[in-house]
């Protein structure tokens, strides 16, 4: 049922009207997809004429850029929460491991029976042999330490990739907007609207890139690239993994073709894992 039009005159009423328009545009996009929502449909949903909508927003695309900026902020908050939780868990595990290790090492006590004190060669063993064995042991310990660091870096990268991919998968509207941003939403807008939107997402990417770097062995530049590619690939992959009704019917009829339709989350996760593992290999000396 179409709502009766009431002109908003006070500033707080105008702000309320803006929020109503944004909420209607969001609901319509969730129901039918961003590309299928017209300015007329938004106007009808809030009981306004299209000309009245333009008192608040220049174009339909500007409405969705504002919603996009809000979605980016919400996604960033979700990723930050995941990374902080992972960091706290890793610190707790490391503290527990450190306690176990220190508890199992004798400190300043007498050597067990049959074991020579430090610096004293056992009977029948030449000091040079001891030095050689110790050097070999040191080499093994060094290799083990390097392997441990590599495993930890791989584990932390996996946690970060999971945080990025799973929080994107949880936000279908953001993924839909990402798929439409470069092709439509950035076209029919004012320069100021485009500038505001770009500054917003660049700030989000820079902040998340720094967080990713702190959580992994990646540099800030590599962390920023991982975040950028995550959103770019999500925008490409989302419409492929969520086909149109025509393609959905085709897939139901033809299993061979249907097999080429990727699952969103596993595909995104695999691609980001490959990128996270490969970025350090491309560093210049």
Summarize the structure.
The protein is built from 11 helices and no strands. The protein is mostly helical and 285 residues long.
Rough outline: globular
* Beta strands, count: 0
Our count of helices gives: 11
- CATH topology (level 3) name of the largest domain: Tetracycline Repressor, domain 2
Topology:
Layout: H1 11-32, H2 39-46, H3 50-53, H4 60-103, H5 127-169, H6 172-185, H7 191-215, H8 220-241, H9 245-253, H10 255-258, H11 264-278
Descriptive overview:
The protein is an all-alpha fold and 285 residues long. It has two domains: 1-57, Orthogonal Bundle (Arc Repressor Mutant, subunit A), CATH 1.10.10.60; 59-87 and 142-285, Tetracycline Repressor, domain 2 (Orthogonal Bundle), CATH 1.10.357.10. The protein has eleven helices and no strands. α1 packs across α2 (39-46). The radius of gyration is 29 Å and the shape is globular.
Quick tags:
mainly alpha; Arc Repressor Mutant, subunit A; 285 residues; globular; Tetracycline Repressor, domain 2
């Amino acid at each position: 049922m179409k709502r009766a039009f009431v002109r908003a005159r006070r500033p707080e009423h105008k702000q309320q009207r803006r929020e109503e328009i944004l909420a209607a545009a969001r609901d319509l996009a969730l129901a039918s997809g961003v590309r299928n929502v017209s300015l007329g449909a938004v106007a009808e949903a809030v009981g306004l004429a299209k000309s009245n909508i333009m008192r608040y927003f220049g174009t339909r695309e500007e409405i969705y850029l504002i919603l996009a900026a809000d979605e980016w902020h919400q996604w960033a908050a979700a990723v930050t929460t995941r990374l902080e939780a992972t960091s706290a868990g890793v610190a707790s595990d490391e503290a527990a491991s450190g306690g176990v290790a220190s508890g199992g090492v004798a400190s300043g006590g007498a050597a067990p029976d049959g074991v020579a004190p430090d610096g004293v060669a056992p009977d029948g063993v030449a000091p040079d042999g001891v030095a050689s064995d110790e050097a070999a042991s040191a080499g093994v310990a060094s290799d083990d330490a390097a392997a441990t660091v590599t495993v930890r870096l791989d584990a932390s990268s996996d946690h970060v990739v999971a945080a990025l991919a799973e929080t994107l998968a949880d936000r279908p509207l953001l993924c839909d907007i990402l798929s439409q941003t470069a092709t439509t939403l950035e076209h029919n807008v004012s320069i100021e609207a485009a500038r505001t939107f770009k500054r917003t997402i660049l700030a989000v990417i820079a902040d998340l890139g720094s967080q990713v770097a702190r959580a992994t062995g990646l540099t800030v530049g590599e962390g920023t690239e991982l975040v950028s590619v995550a959103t770019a690939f999500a925008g490409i992959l989302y419409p492929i993994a969520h086909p149109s009704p025509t393609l959905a019917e085709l897939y139901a009829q033809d299993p061979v073709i249907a097999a080429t339709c990727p699952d969103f989350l596993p595909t995104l996760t695999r691609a980001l894992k490959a990128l996270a593992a490969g970025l350090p290999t491309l560093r210049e000396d």
